[in-house]
Amino acid sequence: MSTYLFPFLLTLFAGLSTGIGGLIAFHKKAASKKFLAFALGLSAGVMIYVSFIEIFPKAFNSLEEIYGTKLGYLFTTVGFFAGVFLIALIDKFVPKAENPHELDGRNIFDKDHEQQHLLRMGIFSALAIAIHNFPEGLATFIAALESPAIGISIAVAIAIHNVPEGIAVAVPIYHATNSKKKAFGFALWSGLAEPLGAIIGFFLLYTFLGPSLFGFVFASVAGIMVYISLDELLPTAEKYGEHHIAIYGLILGMMIMAASLLIFV
């Protein structure tokens, strides 16, 4: 049981960070565009680096032992793009107008919207984030199960990018209802999909989770992380109008990830 407790707690930590965003939403000055752009870039840098440098090779090593070099690499590649297509499919079925990753970050504090529209946008944003967070939870859990160091890195990266998602949920609901309790509650609830995704996803796979499937799932985790970074984190950072700050965050995130992996070599 202790083997699974630490990965679950990491996933829970990453998910609950949407609640931090919910709290920041009540103090708009704290949510500066420069800080958010830098944080999103940092998160993307961590996830892209760890996906290609650590997760993909580990998945390949696992599958190579079973199927040999050629087939092992083929299955690793298929697993990687299966993760990409999975998260892309989820993204496609979220209505674009309510998808928090399609929202213009410069408009989330606009007070001119009608209350009903704001409430609807906030609720749909919470639902959309919950849908996106489900596979992220499984990804964090599986990564931490294989390597606590990688799990911590991914959990921190996801936690960082969950903060502005919590803001995107809480701001419209708060302005629509004037209720901090409701705004914070929806922001927190949207993040709880991550530990839920870890529990449901893992127990569905538990019976079949041998070295072969584990390698395939691990490769899919890399695909999910890369897609999230390229489709969500970097474009959202760009929408805050701080291109170079986002890039500086991206590079620093890669450097931090590289340093942390060197420590555990």
- Taken in chain order, the helices and strands follow as HHHHHHHH
Main structural class: mainly alpha
Number of strands: 0
**What's the tally of helices?**
8
Helix share, percent: over 70%
The proportion of strand residues reads under 5%
**Rg measurement, Å:** 18 Å
Q: What's the mean pLDDT score?
A: 78
Description:
The chain is mainly α. The protein has one domain. Helix content is 83%, strand content 0%. It is built from 8 helices and no strands. Helix 1 (2-24) runs parallel beside helix 4 (148-177). The protein is globular, with a radius of gyration of 18 Å. Residues 103-113 have low confidence and may be disordered.
How do the helices and strands line up, and which of them pair or pack?
Elements (H helix, E strand, L loop, with lengths): L1 H23 L8 H60 L22 H32 L1 H30 L2 H12 L1 H14 L4 H29 L3 H21 L2
Outline of the structure:
With 265 residues, the chain is an all-alpha fold.
Keywords:
265 residues; mainly alpha; 8 helices
